[in-house]
Amino acid sequence: MVITKQVPVIDMQKVEGLGKEIVRACEEWGCFRILNHGIPMELMEEMKAVSASLFDLPEEIKSRTADPGPGKGYDGRNAVTPFYEGLSIDEISSTDEFCDRLDASTHQREIIHRYIKAIRDLAGKLGRKLMEGNGLVGDLFEGWCCQLRMNKYHFCPESVGLLGARLHCDTSFLTILQDDGNVNGFQIVDRLSVEFVPVDHVPGTLVVIIGDIGKIWSNGRYYNVKHRVLCFEPKLRHSIGLFVNWPTDKKIEAPSKLVDSKHPRLYIPVDAEEYIHVRYSSEMRTGGAVDIFRTTTTTS
């Protein structure tokens, strides 16, 4: 069943209370839209066009970016996800290497670099506002590993009513998603009702999605929202997501500010590589992997 609730829409130009509003959306929804985010619409459209042009490359060229690691590199259509195709810059600091492998043009490279800088700057602002909303200071995502993933859904008459992306939680702390302005189908699982809620496109906005690492860092406060993509009409669908993953030099753990007598520490410090191994080897795609890292502390 799909219910007609709507995820929050947050104005990033708001001055008073923005941090707390973002934190509340992370806790109650695990997903929200942002407007006045600072990324020009023209750049978003140019990046969408570049993404589409890269997917139009021959399979043998796209496969140059393939990576055996889970969730990395080129992801071609297969029996499990027959309508999905993905291209990934697995670490945005390695963008030039990705472009070299695809023989990207000067124009394509320029747009990719500009887009990554703009959306990474936006991620930094979200991180600072999350800190502020929790009564903390600092740049939360400074030095974190970030991945840019381009998605293409080959929807056709035979795919209507079927899944383009299976139900899952993101592995990241958060994802900033530029969804398709012409083709809907993105749905989340409501935290309270456990029903599917459509997250239909709103012009000029981006979607923020909380993942498993976000739940661990927040000591269980943030909702690592389950989501999927469903095909409603036989049209090609494109989206572009920045995954703000994890710090490269330390384990993930909740700040002491988020731990108290009412909120005992729920998770041990988590090594990102170990978490990724556990998540994919156990096939726990819908959030269950975080429970493996729970402390032995229980509350009545």
Automatic annotation (TrEMBL):
Q: Does the keyword Metal-binding apply?
A: yes
Where's the Fe2OG dioxygenase domain?
A: 143-246
* InterPro entries per UniProt: DIOX_N, IPNS-like_FE2OG_OXY, IPNS-like_sf, Iron_ascorbate_oxido_reductase, Oxoglu/Fe-dep_dioxygenase_dom
**Which keywords does this Swiss-Prot/TrEMBL entry list?**
Iron, Metal-binding, Oxidoreductase
Enumerate the GO terms in the molecular function aspect: metal ion binding; oxidoreductase activity, acting on paired donors, with incorporation or reduction of molecular oxygen
Could you confirm whether the keyword Secreted appears in this record? no
- Name the protein family: Belongs to the iron/ascorbate-dependent oxidoreductase family.
Provide the protein name.
Answer: Fe2OG dioxygenase domain-containing protein
Source organism of the structure? Ambrosia artemisiifolia
